[in-house]
Amino acid sequence: MTDILVFYSMLDPFEEWRDAIATHLGTEIRIERADAVSDPSRVRFALVWNPPTGFFDKFPNLELVINLGAGVDRLVSRADLPDIPITRLSDPEMGKMMAGFVLFSVLRHAREIPHFEAAQRNKQWSYRHPRSASDINVTVLGLGELGGLAATEIARQGFRTHGWATRPRDLPGVEVHYENAALHDLLANADIVVCMLPLTPATSKCLDAAAFAAMKPGAAFVNVSRGEVVEERALVAALQSGKLSGATLDVFASEPLPPEHALWTLPGVLITPHLASVALPKSAAPQIAFNINAVRSGAPLANVVSKLRGY
Ligand code: NDP
């Protein structure tokens, strides 16, 4: 009997995902767009990015929800989430894309690019002697699938790299800290702080006024995780006062960032519209098919999300 994988995303192209996944699945699975499902009772799998409230109620035989991305905060916080396994994407190209963006952000601050861009606008030849990477401390908050790879890349460039997680991890070149109390010491020690924490009840607004106060004067801040992990007013105040020398920000509490928001015009701040990394059909398709086949054969799933932890 044919099973159906239902697809929902307002951002991702259905045909591209369908064709990429279909090459890894047998003909006994049909992939259908959410607005054109032939038989809701045959839907056993859902591949979704931010589906509307009530979406899951339409499919009484759903057995697996696959989040079409890495961040699951909007999915696991829903009241209408069915009590079935949730998996996330963790594809290698997504990891590389994120590590590249984070490395760019760290180098932007390490090589004082905002200073040179400002000087260029005034046609000033404003020499600043470059610092060696080995004299620069970078702290990466969150060492998961994406964060761990980014931290390893930063370390590979020769930066003194520290990381923060809840459990010990072995990452080449990265000094890993996992005590909750370590956070403020790590912030105080860092020239560049990179936020790669998932948004959960435990991390919501964890980078608050006290956290920015703990940071080194002149430190730079990079956020590629979720805007709500940061107390945005405290971030703005830290930038306005000069406590922070600059920031590279890809994510915001409110997206799109409203035109009147103070962050748009602060010196040393680069704003990008939430694109540090995206899921790519060809590289994500094998793991989607793997999990669908695992459900069908009763085998263990990969990349399972803990609803308790929230990531
Ligand atoms: P993972 O879920 O794989 O890992 C999360 C990491 O954060 C783990 O190391 C975890 O620790 C750590 N962590 C979680 N809670 C805490 C806490 N309370 N205190 C200390 N450490 C904590 O995440 P990824 O690395 O795959 O991705 C990170 C985030 O990036 C995603 O959640 C998503 O929000 C964001 N993202 C942004 C994109 C963009 O384009 N800007 C694209 C894709 C993702 P432990 O290892 O001990 O479990």
Automatic annotation (TrEMBL):
Pfam families given in the database record: 2-Hacid_dh_C
CDD domains referenced in this protein's UniProt entry, alphabetically: GDH_like_2 (cd12164)
Molecular function via GO: NAD binding; oxidoreductase activity
UniProt-listed InterPro entries: D-isomer_DH_NAD-bd (IPR006140), NAD(P)-bd_dom_sf (IPR036291)
D-isomer specific 2-hydroxyacid dehydrogenase NAD-binding domain span: 105-276
Keywords, in A-Z order: NAD, Oxidoreductase
UniProt keyword annotation of Ligase present: no
UniProt keyword Disulfide bond present: no
PANTHER family: 2-HACID_DH_C DOMAIN-CONTAINING PROTEIN, D-ISOMER SPECIFIC 2-HYDROXYACID DEHYDROGENASE NAD-BINDING DOMAIN-CONTAINING PROTEIN
Name of the molecule in the record: D-3-phosphoglycerate dehydrogenase
Upper lineage: Bacteria, Pseudomonadati, Pseudomonadota, Alphaproteobacteria, Hyphomicrobiales
